[in-house]
Amino acid sequence: MAYGSGHTRWVTDRGHDADKRLARVALQTLGVSDARLTLLGCGLSSNAWLVADDVGDRELVLRVALVAARSTYEREHAVLSRVLDTLNQAQPCALRVPRPITGHWLLESSQAVNFSVTERLGGVGLALVDAAEAAEPIGRALQALHGVDVRGLGLADTTRGWPFDDMPVHPIFGSGLTGWADDIRQVAATQPRVLVHGDLHDENILWPLVDDPDGSAVGFVDFGMASVGAAGWDFAALAYFLSWQIATIALTSYLQDGGDLSRLTRQTQLLALSFAHHRLVTAQDNDEVGHGTAFIDETLSALSSWGGDVRAWA
Rounded to 5 degrees, what are φ and ψ at 234? Predict the structure, then answer.
């Protein structure tokens, strides 16, 4: 599973001695400097370590930022604390998130160390072969997440990149996308603003969970991309990373207490064009370029099949 910000592939071809020394420095502030450290993974922005503390009889996840100034840890902990406060008042609930451990954020030394510690959420990253089965609880978990009060968290708006700024459309698509710009902006501007995870790929979705073997609950980790915006952004991410089939199952579950599935699907498809475009223009390899291109083509085809005035769906 991923603990770094963004959907990163773990980098395993560099030495970890210096990184481990930084992790040890962070552990000293928690009084567990002798705890066992096991590398979970190395991303482009963070290293993640499993901390086994025999004294406390618990497992923790330590993340150390590779560039301290770019860390989102303090904001993530505020979000996790708010989510947990909400979940404690709404049991039972399909959503689980890691419990943050408070402490120092930035250690001033010869090399500043910015770190995050959370309790380990028992579970494994979602296997793609299990995604269809997990989609219903994912929808219910998103219903809980989107019910969290975002006031006072200081989160940025979800809108970024095309068509919300001056970024030009990727030359692969040109006019094929620009014709949808006003519709995307209208959906983003007119829908209720909720807490958006923003990075729901298979590594950031834990299912099944150790304490919930029947699969009725789902764990979400890595809130480094958390923001405030329309609910459809999270379903757009599910569609992009998993498939439109999985996103549709989750949407249906999300609306179990009533709602217009066709309307929310159309809104999600519009937002997905912007989401995928952002992934495309920031892609770091040809595989993602190919995936982003195919996804946008698929979504444009689905939108065109609806007919009628798209503004009626906003």
Answer: -70, -35
* 3-state SS, residue 235: helix
259: Cβ contacts below 8 Å, ≥ 6 apart: none
- 218-220 and 123-125 beta bridge pairing: unpaired
User: How confident is the chain (314 residues) per 10-residue block, as mean pLDDT?
Assistant: 33 57 80 86 84 78 77 90 92 92 62 82 95 98 97 94 93 91 96 97 96 95 95 98 98 92 97 97 94 98 80 58
β-partners of residue 113 are 107
CB atoms within 10 A of CB 269: 27
Instruction: Give helix 232-241 / helix 261-281 axis angle, nearest 10°.
Output: 60
- Which neighbouring-strand residues pair with 205? 220
Select from 285, 195, 220 the least CA-distant residue to 3: 220
In order of 4, 34, 56, 264, the CA distances from 53 in angstroms are 22, 8, 5, 45
258 φ, ψ (degrees, to nearest 5): 115, 145
The domain 124-313: what is its CATH number?
3.90.1200.10
Quick one: DSSP state of residue 257?
A: T
Cβ of 287: how many Cβ atoms within 10 Å? 10
Distance separating alpha carbons of residues 306 and 312, to the nearest angstrom: 12
In this structure, what token pair is assigned to residue 82? 């708010």
Backbone angles phi, psi at 175, to 5 degrees: -65, -20
* Structural contact between residues 248 and 235, judged by C-beta atoms closer than 8 angstroms: no
Helix (H, G, I), strand (E, B) or coil at 195: strand
User: What pTM, to 2 d.p., does this model score?
Assistant: 0.90
Please state the φ and ψ torsions of residue 153, each to the nearest 5 degrees: -80, -20
Q: In the numeric block, which tokens belong to residue 154? A: 């200081």
Do the beta carbons of residue 28 and residue 38 sit within 8 Å? no
| Domain ranges, ordered by start, for the chain | 17-121, 124-313
Angstrom distance (rounded) from CA 230 to CA 189:
8
Domain over 17-121 is classified CATH 3.30.200.20 = yes
